[in-house]
Amino acid sequence: MPFSVCIVGGGLVGALEAIYMAKRGWDVHVYESRGDPRSEVVTEGRSINLAMSHRAITAMEKVGVSEEVMRWVVPMKGRMIHSLDGSTASQPYSIRGECINSVERKRLNEFLLAEAEKHPNVKVYFQHRLSEANLDSGHLVFEGPDKRTVDVNADLIVGADGVYSLVRSNVMKRVRMDFQQTYIDHGYVELHMEPSSDGNWQMDPNHLHIWPKHSYMMIALPNPDKTFTLTLFMPWDNFENLKTEEQVLDFFKREFPDVVPKVGAEQLVKTFFRNPKGSLVHIKCKPYNYKHRAVFIGDAAHAMVPFYGQGMNCGFEDCRVLHEILDKHFGIDSSGKPPSPDELANALSEYSKIRYPDVTTIVDLAMYNYGEMRHLVTDWRYFIRKKVEGWLHLLVPRTVIPLYSMVSFSSIPYSEVMQRWQNQTAWLERTAEVAILGTAVTALTVTLRILNTKVAVSKLLSLQ
Amino acid sequence: MPFSVCIVGGGLVGALEAIYMAKRGWDVHVYESRGDPRSEVVTEGRSINLAMSHRAITAMEKVGVSEEVMRWVVPMKGRMIHSLDGSTASQPYSIRGECINSVERKRLNEFLLAEAEKHPNVKVYFQHRLSEANLDSGHLVFEGPDKRTVDVNADLIVGADGVYSLVRSNVMKRVRMDFQQTYIDHGYVELHMEPSSDGNWQMDPNHLHIWPKHSYMMIALPNPDKTFTLTLFMPWDNFENLKTEEQVLDFFKREFPDVVPKVGAEQLVKTFFRNPKGSLVHIKCKPYNYKHRAVFIGDAAHAMVPFYGQGMNCGFEDCRVLHEILDKHFGIDSSGKPPSPDELANALSEYSKIRYPDVTTIVDLAMYNYGEMRHLVTDWRYFIRKKVEGWLHLLVPRTVIPLYSMVSFSSIPYSEVMQRWQNQTAWLERTAEVAILGTAVTALTVTLRILNTKVAVSKLLSLQ
């Protein structure tokens, strides 16, 4: 019997994980509760596009699927800050020109599923929902279409079943799991901006657009079809105050006057009410595995608020890190050789241990970045600091790397990112103090010299 | 149709809540998954006795059931600290002689169930486990003995179903619930000390006995039958190092030499291996209600580590606070009049809001007290501080109340306890600084005077 892996969830992370597992030569079965995205229409209102950066690309590269994807992304080289008067200001993400990339969730998911299915040892089943799981025996029951139940016996169960993960719930029943889920008081709604009448993007497509409003914000990401997806993030209370079409239109006209004509008043009001209002939750937990039998990755392990654009990046990185650890324990072996339960348990425990500090750090940073996006980007001190950090990064590229660059344009483990950021912030602050002190001393010295000179001159004059 | 309340869980809190609900004239149905404790033998190993203090007593008083209970408790007036050399030192809980009370869980549970069943409008069903819950319609399904299912329709569902509450899980599916569960790295095991050969307690029964070991500890609570229940709390790693009977015995002989002869070497080793090892978890969440339909209380809402002896006290207080809020909204009315859904939803939301800061405070304090019990009680600074606080409490009883007294001997809301404690700690520290400074100045002045006198004297002498 070949070693069999059952992946619960065929979303982005589940599909990529299937490719990783397939390359080990193991038998891979992916069970997804929703229908095949390739035969379904896009559902508006649920993070249509995502920001893909270094970590996701690296994870895809490792299994040779990044090239194709990079052909249909829209690179965004910076933030475009929209002011109330309609003026805009570009803030590049990187002084070296590095970009993050807007990518369509549906297209990426379809592509990764197709790539997975190219492997003869991968099978994907849609509309199959996990209904029972016995993690000790590895026996799972799925409910398929027409309520038909399917029995599955797996050597290893991978939970890639998202924020409300059933695999995680099952692990939680068996281990002493630390678990924390926190909702923020803000919700979101997605809106849509069509191309202009001449068929082009209505705003600069190579930016992530932000309308910072301190206590809330709207953002927009470009799509390859020349449309933009707008997302309004706002306290639930504010949503509740927008009950009538008139209130919504007034609100947009007052707060986003440049957006209303671009979306169209009627369209805007219609989609605002039609599209679902999403809630924002973050989840931290540990461990991520149950013995040799189960491990969960992606949102199941670390749902985060979307403000650093790292949800998918971190989920894809989970796959890379997990398989690097498996490689370390079993060697890079595509023969399908089954690992011993003990070896596998050790590897999965190591994964839980190694991944926890990184994953919790990005969950926290994602929350931190909400403040930065809706508020800090309008602060001149923040702006100066960013500039100084950027220049220093050019001067001493290994010593000072801006936080955003470490998160989005490197594979430095998130926990190390945090450590370095704290160190360089302390260093920058000390340097700034020294600089200010130095400037003050110099100014004083110069003033005194001038005064002395004056005194000397007047003495000279008086001598005359 | 009378207003019907379904209480899930007939443990301590569920049974008391049934009495509270019965007094409103509502129809009360209690479903408990375990068997009737009155027809079962006591199961050793799961918190046989508990420390009952002011809050639990007050909550029972409100429904007239405290008097009987107080007859069979064993009062404990302080901690008895056991040193390695076998010497003991008593640390009273209160300078006013207030006590906490050791009470048997099983007896208390049986009594409260019997009291609840005295009300004609209360029915208790044992061996009925919640299997389905539709909180919107109020329809519940229980699985009874022989896998028979029972359908229940309730106007209000009260979850008193403990740390792994199913009512809470169901509420969590419907509201944006913040939820946090954290296991500590320590586990526990219960041991048993028989009466002496002359039929008496082998240690002072009016103390809670502690063997503080800095990184772990053992405690003992007296039972009315002249036995003691000992609980060893220890890091899991330490448990894992005790694999053989010899290792266990060596460990006890080395660390608890006074305990070994009292328990008996053979008995000690046997129970150590036979009794289950319990884990310690704390849970914080909010809200505690789902609209007008469900509310959960006790461990379901706030499991805590047992180190402040407040788990049951806080759970009973939940009942008191909940019903004070219901009284406020509907008046004190025993006619069974059904409340309107809106009114009830408002009252339950208010309960969630009011109770959250108190409950999370005691969850944190319980964790803090572990450090105090296993370590601080051996610190002379801690000891002096306690003494000073005690004296000040006698002098200015309203201004300074020791933390332990506020928690255990008052009904001051826990969050206010924390606030007052922080304020009085700051005040005590300032006062101590002033006192030390004052003493230093006085000492200096006196020294200088003496020196002056000496100088004057020597001058006088030299004049002669």
From TrEMBL, chains A, B:
One of its GO terms (cellular component) is mitochondrial outer membrane. It is found in: Mitochondrion outer membrane. The keyword Ion transport does not apply. It holds the Pfam family FAD_binding_3. SUPFAM superfamilies: FAD/NAD(P)-binding domain. Keywords: FAD, Flavoprotein, Membrane, Mitochondrion, Mitochondrion outer membrane, Monooxygenase, NADP, Oxidoreductase, Pyridine nucleotide biosynthesis. The keyword Oxidoreductase applies. Belongs to the aromatic-ring hydroxylase family. KMO subfamily. This is Kynurenine 3-monooxygenase. It comes from Gonapodya prolifera (strain JEL478) (Monoblepharis prolifera). The lineage of its organism: Eukaryota, Fungi, Fungi incertae sedis, Chytridiomycota, Chytridiomycota incertae sedis. The gene is BNA4.
